[in-house]
Amino acid sequence: MTAKLKPSPLFLGIDTGGTYTDAVLWSEAGGPGGKVLAKAKALTTRHDLAVGISGAVDAVLQKAGTDPAAIKLVSMSTTLATNALVEGQGGRVALVMIGFAEGDLARDGLKAALGTDPVVFGAGGHDVHGNAAKLDLSGLEAALPELEKSVSGFAVCAYFATRNPAHELAARDLIRDRTGLPVTASHELSAKLGGPRRALTTLLNARLISMIDRLVAATEGFLAARNIAAPLMVVRGDGALVSAAFARQRPIETILSGPAASLVGARHMTGLDNAVVSDIGGTTTDVAVLDKGRPRLDPEGATVGGFRTMVEAVAMRTFGLGGDSEVALEDGALSPKILLGPRRLVPLALAGMVHGDAVTSELERQLRAPNPGRMDGRLAVRTGVPERLAAGLTGAEAKLYELIGAVPQALDRLLTSNAQNATLNRLVSRGLVHVAGFTPSDAAHVLGRQANWDPAAARLGAELFARRRDGRGQFIAASPEAISERVLTTLTRLSAEVILETAFAEDGLDGAATVAHALVQRAVDAHPGIARLSVALDRPVIGLGASAPLHYAGLAELVGNDCVVPEDTDVANALGAVVGQVRVSAEARVSQPKEGLFRVASGESVRDFNDEAAAIAAAERDVRAIAAGRAKDAGTDSAEIEIASEFRVSTVEGQRMFIEAHVVAVASGRPRMAV
């Protein structure tokens, strides 16, 4: 009698991007790289993320004819956090600074990131050895009744909290007890010194909590409705997997989640160990380097939306350039250039497909006007987020928000002054309103190179844009087709620039953007000039994203190497999400406040020892235990733990003098699957 073979477990990968939600069903069987059994896309529905998720996953299950019970692991990557930071979106939060002065806000971009959100200062904090100053939370306590009405969460950062988190814990407990709102403490996110940048990272984390919470809740609700009883994992910014519960508490670690997953997917699909990976989506282009089969990590922390965080992530450069980038015109030039991004607009073709005549009738009205208008081809519509997220609006913002509804309205009818335009931009930055307008995706519809939305609305938008005037008063293009061709050519050229800029920056070259622009411009113009310049990458480009076959078709000649676009490039993120591993770390520091006293700061505890060896041994035990606990929380039951120690010592008159030790434990393993 032949034994019945046990079926290979199935893995479901989901990527929730700014425009599309992708899903892929993958099996380890079918060869060394496994097999993609089915893939599908659905529009990301920001007002209710479950709609887009269910659309993509249901299509995958139907294509594969799979019993949902056969799925043993679900893994998700997302660009929502990345896009939110690039576009300046997120919830309104209160920043609590303990032991800092107001002047510290000017460091590391913290003041710019804070914007108009409230900040509360209090006395306290610690010194470099963890010795405490006097804590005073009376100002915070007095402010809480008003703050809880206008913010969605709190970020707490105390001076030298990485050496002793006691004051952050006290503030965190007070806020949770009085308000019940989410609180992020800086020591939970990073063990690095640098208070203002740690505060910045904590602030951004607090802003993202409600967004990632909605994504996870929507996904879990959908899985339960489909009887998929598999663990849900989320891709972190360094490409590792963590449990959904882990990601909910530390959403800042999901910045660059989508791009990190795409790197894992790119390596998996192409087998290339060395490449430049460029992933073009609706909102951003993300460029990174593969070296020896692994993505380069940024030891200084990820930079997104102009903010340098303390989040360890892939060394990814994120540019506001994508298929849904805002198309604009250079001001004041006789022959103005086409400008793209960094803001994302809802493509008119997409708005036309969703809202029909409400969009096309307004565009046709504007075309009938004898002269072009400054706001032609632009409409505003609510995003559909819960009303509680609109808390804290100014009077002008609230008044304009009331006028904007669920049906797109033309800006030339909605806005009556330049001041209102600034007010609208603030509503967009809060994630409350979308602006629809002409984008490269519309240009592709006009030229017949994309056909998934409404080409009629796209063509109307192109006509309106083409009749804008240059510095001589002439139309900037003769036809919708002509302006659309210019837009797509510009997108390919700018794609080459950001790829070369990334390569130059990785090589440590100053002025990388300027050099990249000059070289690509020479290549496009085909005029070498007196000084002959050329450039070639030392490795191929892997082009990812659903629109990569379109926008990267002419890329190879501009970067001097091959451009490989894999077969499943449109779901690289979703595929990368299911082939990763759980990886978490824990850190401890051992200092010597005075001779013969060794202080161990690990997790949320601070302990003193009279012997260096005993202190180091205790630090190693602590980080092993903390890493094991975090690994379990992150979703693996089979973690392998490696410990490394780095010592700072000096020699005085031939005697070794201990200064400090840094002990790190890294736990990694495959995620647990459903039985």
Structure description:
With 675 residues, the chain is of the alpha/beta class. The protein is built from 21 helices and 31 strands. Strands 3-2-1-4-9-10 form a 6-stranded mixed β-sheet. Strands 11, 12, 13, 18, 25 and 26 form a 6-stranded mixed β-sheet that branches. A hairpin with a 2-residue loop joins β30 and β31 (655-669). It is globular. The two termini are 26 Å apart.
Short précis:
By secondary structure, the protein is α/β, with parallel strands linked by helices. Helices cover 37% and strands 25% of the residues.
Beta content comes to 15-25%
Number of helices: 21
Biggest beta sheet attributes: 6 strands, mixed
N- to C-terminal distance? 26 Å
Categorize the overall geometry: globular
pLDDT averaged over residues: 87
Helix content: 25-40%
Uncertain stretches: 1-5
Task: Tell how many strands the DSSP assignment holds.
Answer: 31
Q: If strands are numbered along the chain, what order do they take across the biggest sheet?
A: 3-2-1-4-9-10
Tags for this model:
single chain; 675 residues; alpha/beta; 6-stranded mixed sheet; 21 helices; 37% helix
Topology summary:
Blueprint: E1 10-16, E2 20-27, E3 35-43, H1 49-64, E4 71-78, H2 80-86, E5 93-98, H3 110-114, E6 119-122, H4 138-150, E7 153-158, H5 166-179, E8 183-185, H6 195-225, E9 232-235, E10 241-243, H7 244-249, H8 257-270, E11 275-280, E12 285-291, E13 294-295, E14 297-298, E15 303-304, E16 307-308, E17 313-314, E18 317-319, E19 325-329, E20 338-344, E21 346-347, H9 348-355, H10 357-368, E22 379-382, H11 395-403, E23 409-410, H12 411-414, H13 418-429, E24 433-437, H14 440-446, H15 455-466, H16 480-506, H17 512-525, E25 541-544, H18 548-551, H19 556-559, E26 563-564, H20 572-577, E27 582-594, E28 597-602, E29 605-609, H21 612-634, E30 640-652, E31 655-669
Parallel strand pairs: 1-4, 4-9, 5-6, 5-7, 7-8, 11-25, 21-24, 25-26
Antiparallel strand pairs: 1-2, 2-3, 9-10, 11-12, 12-13, 12-18, 14-17, 15-16, 19-20, 22-23, 22-24, 27-28, 27-31, 28-29, 30-31
